[in-house]
Amino acid sequence: MSELNLILLGPPGAGKGTQAEQLRTEFELPHISTGDMLRQAVAEQTELGELASSYMDAGNLVPDDVIIGLLLQAIGRSDARDGFLLDGFPRTIPQAEALGVDLEKVGRKLTGVLLIEAPDEEIVRRISGRRVNPKSGQIYHVDFDPPKVEGIDDVDGSELVQREDDKPETVRNRLAVYHEQTAPLADYYEHLGLLHRFDGSPAPAEVYSRIRGTIATLKLEETI
Ligand code: AMP
Fold this sequence. Notes:
CATH superfamily of the domain at 4-30 and 77-118 and 182-223: P-loop containing nucleotide triphosphate hydrolases
CATH topology of the domain at 4-30 and 77-118 and 182-223: Rossmann fold
Bound molecules: adenosine monophosphate
Largest sheet: 5 strands, parallel
Strand content: 5-15%
CATH architecture of the domain at 4-30 and 77-118 and 182-223: 3-Layer(aba) Sandwich
Shape: globular
Distance between the termini: 10 Å
Oligomer: single chain
Radius of gyration: 18 Å
Strand order of the largest sheet: 2-3-1-4-7
């Protein structure tokens, strides 16, 4: 069995989304991002979206009972039966425990947890420079990936905005929440022998090549 069941762990802005995109393409894993699922619910103004938006705008976590059900449903779907890549889940110990119990019930297990680390100041700089086209979702960065004309989308000319949860004060709260509630998961998965640490400071391609090397080893171990 060579099912790859991976978790991407790390503070917001460490580059999880970028790495997930590459991993998804190369290893054909469904990328399950609870943040994306919630943002979609907010955009569609569903009941879940209404509930989640106040937590998200303040940079706080949506309650465990809401997010756990959503996530377990997603990994039970047919396209995630042969492997998955979780991004943004688990964020708390109860979420990790619920995931472990659910996987065990169906005879599956995690292959590895990839922790991407970056210093807080670097994170604030990265996230608070993000600008997004609210219509297409296209993301720019004022320093690293600016549009041709400041504040305007290159493709459709829409005005770019800063997401509420990307504002510097909210980012600092997201980081505080991360250190308090999510960082303990590193120890949790280390004890289970599943944790692999990566420095998120180098260029994304460099980070990816290190992650790829680790996954190659994990795949090899699965087949032995
Ligand atoms: P992200 O894009 O992963 O940073 O998620 C954006 C926001 O969605 C977070 O700041 C939380 O408010 C919420 N969120 C995403 N995933 C979770 C989760 N696993 N548990 C609780 N809240 C979450």
